[in-house]
Amino acid sequence: MYPLCMIVGCGGQGMVRPQEDRVPGGLVALVEPRGTSSEREDRLIRRTAVSHQSASAAEIRAAVGTTVTQRTVRNRLLDVQLRARRPVACIPLTPRHCRLRRQWCQARTQWRAEWRSVVFSDESRFCLGASDGRVLIRRRPGERLQPNCLRPRHTGPTPGVMFWGAISYDSRSTLVVIPNTLNANLYVSLVIQPVVLPFMSSIQGGIFQQDNARPHTAAVSQRALQGVDILPWPARSPDLSPIEHVWDIIGRQLQHHPLPAQTVPVLTAQVQQA
Gene3D superfamilies from the xrefs (predicted)? Predict the structure, then answer.
């Protein structure tokens, strides 16, 4: 907020006055002055922010040794489109992982119609009370512990339900509920025999994709999939499978559901209806 003397126009020696911009209707809008940082300080601020991406405005200010305010530091960074954002979560990859992923992609750069024959499969777990951490509420002072201002969450292992599913170019499998911890025998009896084999037989020249989880690569699972063309899959590469987008869509629908699930059976039904 501007000091009263700046708004009404009375001034004094050395006072910094805001710039004036004309807006429609002939009104005058006050624009905050740029600040007092020098070009050298601006360069140091930008250089420090780029080399230390997780540094706060206060840390950048201290590292540069400038006397400008933290707000000025943030403004200088905004001038060059350097905005604070939450980092994208990812799986750590070794150089070997990166090399195998690159080789896998390069071997299929010419694929076009072939992708229509690929069936992508995966498991995903949905939990009660799952949140992206950005849910905000509006409340008055003193209402912090009011029941309508609380967001209950489970302690310990969060109750939830695991699903298996598969998609292809123009079709999808049924969602399979995994009632317990998935192992190879359960994978064969609940997924491969009743769902995967019939689904693959309906796709001419179908290629089945699954990741390298132990239930998938176990000998009993491999025997059950004899006769099915399997797509080799690089380790630690869930981002290469389009089915991850399906799970994300379902997760967002659950977050915006008007009646968030409070029990596992209700959560199961909501996932199946999504």
Answer: Ribonuclease H-like superfamily/Ribonuclease H
